[in-house]
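Sample intake — Outer dense fiber protein 2-like
Collected from: Eschrichtius robustus
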Amino acid sequence: MEATFKEAELATCSVELLLPLFKDTIEEISFENRGDSLSNLLEKLADNESENTSLETKISEWNLQLKKSTHEAVTMKESSRQKAIALKKASKIYKQRIKHFTGDMENLTSQIREQEAKLSETVSASNAWKSHYEKIVIEKTELEFQIETMKK
């Protein structure tokens, strides 16, 4: 795109620089070749004007294309900027969520450990009571046996 723009600028400069030379050449030709007819020179001039118009049209087209491309680039840049802002916001929100969930997980892990400790204490107490109960049952059985033995 930039190369096309430079080509257009060069063509414009070339045409501007060549116009005075062209006029001088025409004057020299008219003095050197008096045999050439005025219509021949006018025809050449018309051809050159047509070519000049064609170049101007191309330059206009290139300038229009340059404006379109520049507008597209600006639009894409703005779109990219807005996407970057949206991604930064989303990233910040997800980081906050992760921090929140990490805190919750740590809290739940702590609660689970506390519950496990309480459960362990309860199991220990239950085992102690079971052992005590079994001893009492054994003693009761022994006492019942002694009582039966004494009754006989």
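Post-analysis note: The chain has a mean pLDDT of 86.
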